[in-house]
Amino acid sequence: MANWLDSVFKVNKPVIAMLHLSALPGDPGFDSAAGVRAVVERAKSELGALQEGGVDGIMISNEFSLPYLTATEPITAITMARVVGELLNEISVPYGVNVLWDGRASIDLAVATGAQYVREIFTGVYASDFGLWNTNIGEVARHRARVGGKDVKLFFNIVPESAKYLADRDLKSITETTVFATLPDAICVSGLTAGAATDVQALTTVKNAAGSVPVFVNTGVRAHNVGEQLTIADGAIVGTYFKQDGVFENRADRTRVEELMGAARDFRATLG
Questions:
Q1: DSSP letters for 15-66
Q2: How buried is 170 (Cβ within 10 angstroms: 0-12 exposed, 13-18 middle, 19+ buried)?
Q3: What's the count of helices (H) and strands (E) in the chain, helices before strands?
Q4: What was the pLDDT predicted at 140?
Q5: Does pTM surpass 0.90?
Q6: How do beta strands 131-133 and 126-128 pair?
Q7: Does residue 101 have a cis peptide bond before it, meaning omega lies within 30 degrees of 0?
Q8: Do 137 and 176 contact (CB within 8 A), yes or no?
Q9: One matching Pfam family, short form (predicted)?
Q10: Could you tell me the residue range of the domain that residue 170 belongs to?
């Protein structure tokens, strides 16, 4: 395990739970009658279910800001900062943030709220459901330094959801050059959408090519396959499985969290 994972999570092969925020002001689905207070109250309830269920960390994201922007409006990160601020006294595990799909805004939010890590699409050019999707990791890395975020760890999603890499390059080559040229703190491997299975061969390819950089399985982890996935990966990020009935739109269900985390602990026990 990489040293920074050890120091942050203090457990082998950590499982990070997604805390999906309801639609926010400016989003098409925002409930203006209920207001931001309803967003905060739901987030508090789900945070309780996740932490009491035994997760190793959380990642707070604006998952219901559909359809997503690749350059968000200021109101999104501003509202998320309020929500995270109201959760801070109740957060008892390492936490990160993710402003979909905006790397700079994610870093700004992390610095403002004391989050230890962010996850985003930091490299590549894609044809996506959101249009042509470009990135500039050199600019983002310099922005992180300017705003005092040098200690914020960057999770690079190397297989973006709902998008296809435009260059004709294989996954092994993409991983090798990403590690060498763009300095990720961790790499995430995803399926097609939230909750979709991550291809085991793709995960293995990235892990073998990533060297000492930790690799996380980013979607499709379930109680029955968490051991298989963690045999390959250095950690997992889980969202949909933790929801009631495993349905993306539902709230986190403590029973399902306990089920998966129990399976993860059983697997870790085999590692010694």
A1: EEEEEEPPP-TTSTT--TTTHHHHHHHHHHHHHHHHHHTT-SEEEEE-TT-P
A2: exposed
A3: 9, 11
A4: 97
A5: yes
A6: antiparallel
A7: yes
A8: no
A9: BtpA
A10: 3-269
Are the C-beta atoms of residues 239 and 246 closer than 8 Å to each other? no
Distance CA 19, CA 25 (A): 18
- Of the CA atoms within 13 Å of residue 72, those in its CB half-sphere come to 31
The residues near 125 (Cβ < 8 Å, ≥ 6 apart) are 132, 133, 134, 135, 165, 166, 167
The Cβ of residue 63 has, within 10 Å, a number of other Cβ atoms equal to 21
Beta-bridge partner residues of 57: 16
Percent of the chain scored above 90 by pLDDT?
A: 92
Cα distance between residue 149 and residue 143, in whole Å: 8
Report the b/e string of 37-62 with b at 16+ CB within 10 A. eebbebbeebbebbbebbbbbbbbbb
Q: How many domains does the chain have?
A: 1
Contact in structure between 170 and 200 (CB atoms under 8 Å) = no
Task: Name every residue whose Cβ is closer than 8 Å to that of residue 88 and which is 6 or more positions away in sequence.
Answer: 113, 114
CATH classification at residue 48: 3.20.20.70
**Structural Rg of the chain based on CA atoms:** 17
Q: Cβ distance 47 to 39 under 8 Å? A: no
User: Tell me: the pLDDT tens digits for 92-116?
Assistant: 999 999 999 999 999 999 999 999 9
What is d(CA 67, CA 58) in angstroms, rounded to the nearest whole number?
23
- Which residue type is seen at 11? V
Give pLDDT, residue 82: 98
